[in-house]
Amino acid sequence: MKKTGMLLLLVGCLAACDNAKDLPLMGRYVAKNVCASIWQEGYDQEAAVRYVTNVAPFIQPSWKVLVDADQVQVNSFWFPWLSPKTAFFLSSEHATDCRNDYPVEPLPGVDPIAPATPSATFVDQINPDSALQRYLDSVIAVGAPEHTTAILVLHANQVIAEAYRDGLGPDSPLKGFSMSKSFANLLVGRKVMRESIGVDDGLMLPGWALDQRAAISWDNSLRMSSGLLWHEASLGENNDQGQMFYNTSDPSAYAWSKPYNTDPNTGFNYSSGDYMNIASALVSGGADWFDPGWNLDQDFVLEFTPDGETPLLGEGVYLTTRGWAALASLYMNAGELNGSPVLSQDWVDYSLTPSDTNYDYGAGIWLNLGQNLFPSLSPDIFAFAGSYDRYVVAVPSRDVVVVRIGFSAQPGDFDMERFVGNVLELVPY
For residues 54 and 102, what is the distance between their CA atoms, to the nearest angstrom? Predict the structure, then answer.
């Protein structure tokens, strides 16, 4: 009787609040990210389900996650009126992708192939008995609530320590969530180098030429100062981010149809919608939009919209720990990767220059110039940051890159600032 009463109370609370509308969205989130964690990243199935469903601990026991040969289905014991939510695993010779099922849309496969250019092959100089390696091993063994699953330290273009768990390893492509926005900077930078676009050019997405949105440039979008009406939330009232990524069959249209709210470059508004618009503009500019400038090999995944047309550059880029470190290394070494030019010095300088509207943010990259990101660490640091305390932190003055991937139960459960500080104490000068 007590359990029935608690269930009725739960249902009543959900029905009376805005979160009730988010139940289908959460089901799609769980289905897609369990699918991706298993078949794209390589997590053990049990760990994948446990980590992903922890996004909503209050209703975690309500989900029944069924893993089949090429799909994940999520049912709810507590809310039986909800239809099952399914994500399908698509695979081809060059690409893999997990996508939610929207029956009205086709699910074609897209094969982004990296050019045969420099690879992110770093020399391994791992000493299993070093103090740094022992420290990483201790960090990854902690478990809850940090849930660290992959870490790597790069020093002078050499991997000097790394640690993995739950089925992961050096060849596992790992989802960046919002760290993906920094990869978007790379793709835009390559087009600017080819003089296909200029950062002050307008994005000119559907309908924008007819109103104030015609003034929105690549620069405004990279720096999240587009002026579009946007609320960056995954759940609750006005949850644009969650609706765009997990509750619509057309994320591109969801983003570019957002109305003008204020003049561009007059305010900073963190927006995954701005990066969806960057992705749409890249794709509309021609077939050469996918040119990272270095060989991503097979250990790379890029998520797409349900119709397979547009990459989800706001959250859907997967690189290995070495790949994420290589991306940071570019901006730490004047645009070069292992001595080969990928980006221009001008683009690197532009990307690491503070925005007019936020001194802590460049063009898709977080900055520590004001020591607001990591107060106890040096101001030359820059970082890629994503959900679940996923970070890539570059320390140019020490020639160090630190990568941390995991599923922190709550934001900040993993103290990246302290972790980087501890790592630097163990890295030789």
Answer: 24
